[in-house]
Amino acid sequence: MAEQQIKVAVLGGGSFGTALASIAADNGARVRQWLRDPALVEQINREHRNGRYLPDYSINPAVVASSDMAEVLPGAELVLVAIPSKAFREVVRQARPHLNPAQILVSTTKGIQEEGFKLMSQILEEETGFPHIGVISGPNLASEIAQKQLTATVIASADPETRTRVQTALGCDYFRVYASNDRHGVELGGALKNIYAIAAGMAAALGMGENTRSMLMTRALAEMSRFAVDQGANPMTFLGLAGVGDLIVTCSSALSRNYRVGYALGEGKTLDEAVEALGQVAEGVNTVRLVRDKAREDGVYMPLAEGLYQVLFKGVPAKEMARMLMLGEQSSDVEFILPREAVQQAHRETGGRHG
Ligand SMILES: NC(=O)c1ccc[n+]([C@@H]2O[C@H](COP(=O)([O-])OP(=O)(O)OC[C@H]3O[C@@H](n4cnc5c(N)ncnc54)[C@H](O)[C@@H]3O)[C@@H](O)[C@H]2O)c1
Ligand SMILES: O=P(O)(O)OC[C@H](O)CO
């Protein structure tokens, strides 16, 4: 018997929503994509192109766009929500009357809501109360997916049905979907790496070398996992695609919007100018502020996030901040082996720095 065609709805007409809609259609799904802008809806349906967010990429003609949620959501078995974090809850509320508990609801958004420090899957849960909730995250630059560059992602959910349905709906010869049950860790990985991508872009613009980038990325991983563990995530998740994988791509590629914002800042632009020039969402700008505040509140040591916050919002020059970080307290390489406190204790006992 022929396999039944899965029905997929995508909320969001940006670069990632568009890339995901096309993957699902390439994979044989019936795909409906919701976006606000009727002119873009018209362009996607007529030219199979998203001229605003992915202008050089052909969308699978089977993707049908609409600005009416009632045409997109009812009947969908899988709903992918690709809306920036600032508008995520508002859009889910709008969608709620058209959703039902049998549907699988998946966030693809790598950001945090300020009120209550909520991740997007928590918003999906709060707004719907439905059981099949998941998160997609990983090293997934939309424009590379659009070119069908070989890519992998993670579907994270405590619900096995959500994991297997998403693997089946999206897994294909250029997009591989791995499973995780650490939803919180995977989602935090996606949000946190944006902070360090801004720092990496800034370091590149300032002419810092590969040693510096390696140090930054590795210490970023230590800092991200320290924070995530404090929030209840599994540290092993950070060895996977949604941890170190996403950190590598976002800290290395000029296709990353967060990296580009950092680069523009390193060239001397103001934060407002850098964000304005980008014209798309760079979640890390907001995330750095929220994570820095949360880390202070919870007593988690995050020198890189604190340093970036001081550069972005307090006018501290990036070079000066880098110097201060280099001269910061002595620390441990891998804290899960040698705790940071043990290093500090040894310094206290032996009288601190020795020449
Ligand atoms: N682009 C990528 O490479 C990529 C990859 C993985 C994850 N993500 C994540 O996906 C999320 C969405 O990113 P994107 O790249 O598609 O963004 P984008 O900047 O390309 O587009 C954002 C889309 O959201 C829409 N939008 C904004 N506010 C809205 C509102 N109030 N109501 C309805 N629509 C609204 C915009 O019109 C646009 O269609 C981000 O959180 C990002 O971290 C992006
Ligand atoms: O363009 P960015 O910086 O939002 O990064 C895109 C993806 O998150 C990379 O995995």
Automatic annotation (TrEMBL):
Matching Pfam families: NAD_Gly3P_dh_C (PF07479), NAD_Gly3P_dh_N (PF01210)
A single MF term (Gene Ontology): glycerol-3-phosphate dehydrogenase [NAD(P)+] activity
Listed InterPro entries: 6-PGluconate_DH-like_C_sf, 6PGD_dom2, G3P_DH_NAD-dep, G3P_DH_NAD-dep_C, G3P_DH_NAD-dep_N, NAD(P)-bd_dom_sf
Record: active site: K193
Keywords: Cytoplasm, Lipid biosynthesis, Lipid metabolism, NAD, NADP, Nucleotide-binding, Oxidoreductase, Phospholipid biosynthesis, Phospholipid metabolism
EC numbers on record: 1.1.1.94
Record pathway: Membrane lipid metabolism; glycerophospholipid metabolism
Domain Glycerol-3-phosphate dehydrogenase NAD-dependent C-terminal intervals: 182-321
Organism superkingdom: Bacteria
Cell compartment(s), UniProt: Cytoplasm
Entry binding sites for NADPH: S15, F16, R36, Y53, K110, A142, R257, V281, E283
Positions of sn-glycerol 3-phosphate binding: K110, G138, K193, D246, S256, R257, N258
Catalytic reaction equation(s): sn-glycerol 3-phosphate + NAD(+) = dihydroxyacetone phosphate + NADH + H(+); sn-glycerol 3-phosphate + NADP(+) = dihydroxyacetone phosphate + NADPH + H(+)
PANTHER family assigned to the protein according to its UniProt record, in alphabetical order: GLYCEROL-3-PHOSPHATE DEHYDROGENASE, GLYCEROL-3-PHOSPHATE DEHYDROGENASE [NAD(+)] 2, CHLOROPLASTIC
Membership in a protein family: Belongs to the NAD-dependent glycerol-3-phosphate dehydrogenase family.
Function: Catalyzes the reduction of the glycolytic intermediate dihydroxyacetone phosphate (DHAP) to sn-glycerol 3-phosphate (G3P), the key precursor for phospholipid synthesis.
Name of the protein in question: Glycerol-3-phosphate dehydrogenase [NAD(P)+]
Organism per entry: Halomonas mongoliensis
Source species taxonomy: Bacteria, Pseudomonadati, Pseudomonadota, Gammaproteobacteria, Oceanospirillales
The gene coding this protein: gpsA
